[in-house]
Hints:
It is globular, with a radius of gyration of 24 Å. The mean pLDDT is 91. Helices cover 39% and strands 20% of the residues. The chain is built from twelve helices and 15 strands. The relative contact order is 0.12. The structure holds zinc ion. The site of zinc ion (ZN) has 6 residues, from loops. Residues 241, 251, 253, 255, 258, 260 line the site of zinc ion (ZN).
Amino acid sequence: xxxxxxxxxxLKLLLRKEKATRRDIADETQLSPFVxxxxxxxxxxxxxxxxxxxSQAKRGRPSNFYHINxxxxxxxxxxxxxxxINIILLNSINRTVSERQFPTGKGAGDSSENFNPFLxxxxxxxxxxxxxxxxxxxxxxxIGIGVPGIIDSDRGIWLRGLRIPGIxxxxxxxxxxxxxxxxVVIEDVARTVTYYEKSNGKGKGTKNFFLLHLGRGxxxxxxxxxEILKGYHGFAGEIGHIIVEPSGYRxxxxxxxxxxTVASLDGILHRxxxxxxxxxxxxxxxxxFHREEFQNLREVLEAAExxxxxxxxxxxxxxxxxxxxxxxxxxxxxxxxIIITGPNAILADYLRDTIYQRIRERVFSEMLSNFELxxxxxxxxxxxxxxxxxxxxxxxxxxxx
Length: 401
Ligand SMILES: [Zn+2]
């Protein structure tokens, strides 16, 4: 659906305020009452806006409150990672209609499909979600998919899975569009979570921010002057592959010492467990220092919270590397905020100090005036939510929030 600039401005205002009279719209958009009337009329014709209630004006003619018709279209968002696939359905005012998680691994046992097992999982989860939401299926206007790796969002091609094995040059947009006849957009998962933070999270109302997503992978998203920066090929924000430790671990991408090898889930566990072995080997009192290897972040957090100095100091070191990467972003883009999110952000209390310290050492103090480093309250539906927002933009042909 093609919308004019005035229609977009009006929709933006209605999304923000939930309801408004023609006069409210004219006041805020600076459009003339005549233009507002015709814009509202067009949006009503398109089914996007409807009268909510008659306002109780004390004097003069009562005027109607308008709102976005919540059922004018639904947008489906999928986010996929190695262990879980999240699917969410949003209505036109970005409220969740339905959401569900599917574990991956089904595809691995099914050799009848000619697909990569992980891709099979995505398609199978989508099929099941649509079966379960049969009554809403007709209202779905577009589907957004957030996946890790290198994504050509313009052509809808998943170029490389990086840490998802076997993904190479898959036209996931065509696959799903052909099957369901619904428009599809594909984005890097870090960019979808950037969109979530921009519309609902810590980035709301901030025109320039950088989002750092720490999970099984490490990714980023840049919001510049209120819009998500895509770059020439759509890859802007690949902070996970900035080299921060040249003598470190090898990354899935082929290089050594990428931020992803330091701050991803596996990166954090590797480092802790390797350092632990070093300490045990070198310690004269190794019997004082033996413990099981860390299996997950919960155990790491518990050790740090219980005052374990070893764990705290390794996490501080990881914070310094993250701080190095953040300093580069600050120097290049001068964002007002850096928002850190993702599952690994539960370690915030043990990373924050050294991230800040490194930033203060490397970035001009003038650039840091009013700068904020914030950790977002991460929930695992954020990526899918952001993917649904990309789907909505595809349908409305414009970035809205
Ligand atoms: Zn890398």
